[in-house]
Amino acid sequence: xxxxxxxxxxxxxxxxxxxxxxxxxxxxxxxxxxxxxxxxxxxxxxxxxxxxxxxxxxxxxxxxxxxxxxxxxxxxxxxxxxxxxxxxxxxxxxxxxxxxxxxxxxxxxxxxxxxxxxxxxxxxxxxxxxxxxxxxx
Length: 137
Fold this sequence. Notes:
It is a single chain. By secondary structure, the chain is mainly beta. It has one helix at residues 2-9, and strands spanning 39-46, 51-59, 69-74, 77-82, 98-102, 109-114, 121-127, 133-134. The protein is built from one helix and eight strands. The strands form two sheets. Strands 5-2-1-8 form a four-stranded mixed beta sheet, with no helix packed on it.
């Protein structure tokens, strides 16, 4: 159910201003029972493979105690990085971890944190196509 909510929320992403990288906030989100981890990510577009390469650059280690799920999401596509049955990796995630996010076209991409309870979520990083770097061989 959370995945459906996440995907439906992506429809409005195209109007949001993007940055090359954002850091999470360690302050509690309104009503949150678990503080969001502080983490920063980088993204590279790999045109020959139609994938984004997302890298956890720095911040707190992400564990099952501070993160329920970590997603890389774009309109119509969701990659569950860690925290569920279909996840491509498992906890703990430490700086240096990478994931590939396959898409048909370049688009807005977000790294989305979900609390261990599943009741709270936050965008930890977001990019727009005009701010994305292309990977070099």
